[in-house]
Amino acid sequence: MHAPEFYDYAVLRLVPRVERGEFVNVGILLSCAARKHLDVRIELDPVRALALDPTLDLALVRRLLDAVEAVCQGGPAAGPIGLLPPRARFHWLTAQRSAILQTSPVHGGKCADLDATMQHLLQRMVRVPGRG
């Protein structure tokens, strides 16, 4: 176990029809600058997404979510953004945009276990209560 470190996170949101502003939370982006850590966990619920827009192209959504995962992992496969340090990639991913994938404002915290914190955030912010 590590000593407690500060971290930042944002909720990844799917906004199928940007003009309506309705969204469903589909993941968590988590960054810890001190550990040069950047992670994303995505849990797309197609039923919830299609409830907002029955014409939503789920294949497109999955490609966009795959691109977010690639940027988080970094490296040349993610293009020029993938070559940036983890903290810069986090800031790029959390920049405000009008697109079908958006993020919440960035929030901060302090923890000793980033994996446990990620699981807690997924449970609290992404998963439907009562479904596990």
UniProtKB/TrEMBL annotation:
Q: Which domain of life is it from?
A: Bacteria
User: Pfam families under this entry?
Assistant: DUF3037 (PF11236)
Give the protein name, as stated in the record. Answer: DUF3037 domain-containing protein
Native organism is Luteimonas kalidii
